[in-house]
Write a structure and sequence with these properties.
46% of the residues lie in helices and 0% in strands. By secondary structure, the protein is mostly helical. The longest helix has 14 residues.
């Protein structure tokens, strides 16, 4: 079993900022109390995959997230697009900028 990732952690606030920016939204996150068992920080240790398989990430986390986000926008994924539109409309923000 191998961990695959970037070998570094991303804070949830940074993830929120990146996704909100890509979606064209300016919405503050809503914080709730932590749940029992919530993991505070986690990093995929990719050393074993690197040593055994020669694995090295091809993309940064940010680039991979951008590719994934754009994939969902450019495929015929109406459910994803509708969720983004509903979120934008609820907060009186414009639709995602067209690529």
């Amino acid at each position: 079993i191998f961990n695959v990732g970037t070998g570094r952690f991303i804070r949830i606030n940074r993830l929120w900022e990146m996704i909100s920016h890509m979606a064209g939204l300016d919405i503050e996150p809503e914080y709730k109390p932590p749940r029992s068992g919530d993991i505070i920080e986690s990093v995929a240790d990719i050393a074993c995959a690197g040593k055994t398989l020669g694995f090295e990430p091809d993309y940064s986390f940010e680039k991979g997230l951008e590719i994934t986000f754009n994939y969902y926008l450019t495929t015929n994924n109406h459910e994803f697009k509708n969720k983004i539109n509903v979120t934008a409309n609820e907060h009186e923000y414009t639709r995602i900028k067209k690529q």
